[in-house]
Structures are given as structure tokens and as C-alpha cells.
Hints:
Layout: H1 3-14, H2 20-27, H3 31-43, E1 63-71, H4 76-84, E2 89-94, E3 101-107, H5 110-121, E4 126-133
Antiparallel strand pairs: 1-3, 1-4, 2-3
Helix pairs in contact: 2-3
Amino acid sequence: MDKFDRAIIDLLTQNARLSLSQIGREIGLSRTSVAERVQRLEDNKFIEAYTIKLGEASSPTVVSAYFQMTFRPFKLERLQPSIAAISEIKHCQALSGEIDLIAYIETQSMDRLNQVRGQLEQLPDLQRLITCPVLEKVK
């Protein structure tokens, strides 16, 4: 991957709807050259999909929260199936330090958020669960 490939990926990451001609003008390559490079990036799995990011106006009210979880003992492989089964968990990362897992959850209501919390409370070896509701999106 060279500087042109990285530039193509950067531009498509910012706006996946850019035309090949627009990309070519931005980086100084012909439309044909950009098309070949994009095809190669797709074939080599550098680009797997083109997606959209929905704006706040596209969905009803979303209630979101971060859940910090501590387990004793912490056995990630034992928890993964249960975590994967909760569709409202959008992101979940294992951490080093006092907190073992942090999960970001989005639901359509506070009641559903509370139900998800109840599911998390049933995870094996859970010692501590802290709920941090999101008040406002900053970035």
C-alpha cells in the first residue's frame, strides 16, 4: 500500500459516496487509475464494505450507557457467548486494570436499558457492575 492507496482510503472513510473522478482530482490520479486501485484494495480486503452513518434525526430517542464490569476470576472466553447474545451491546472491550470489561449499550427506552443491566448482573463471577448513562454526545 502506497501513499495513493492510503489517500483513497482516507477520502472514502470520510465520504464513501465520493466518485472515482472526485477522488482522482483530490489525489492527482486519473479516474481509471483510482478505479484500479479501489478494486485492488477491495480484492485484498483493505476495503470490505461501504456504509453510512445514520444521524440523530434518523432514529427515535436512544438511551445509551457504558457499563463497567469487574469479575473474580475474569475468564473472557466464558463470558463472550453471553455478551454476544445481547444485541443492544454495540461495543465491548476487555481492559487492563481495575475494570475487566466495558460495554457500550444503546436501547430505545430506559426500561430496556434496565433489562439489559439485569442480564449483565447474571453474568458468571460478576463482582461489580457500574452503570454510566450517557448524558450528551460530545463528538
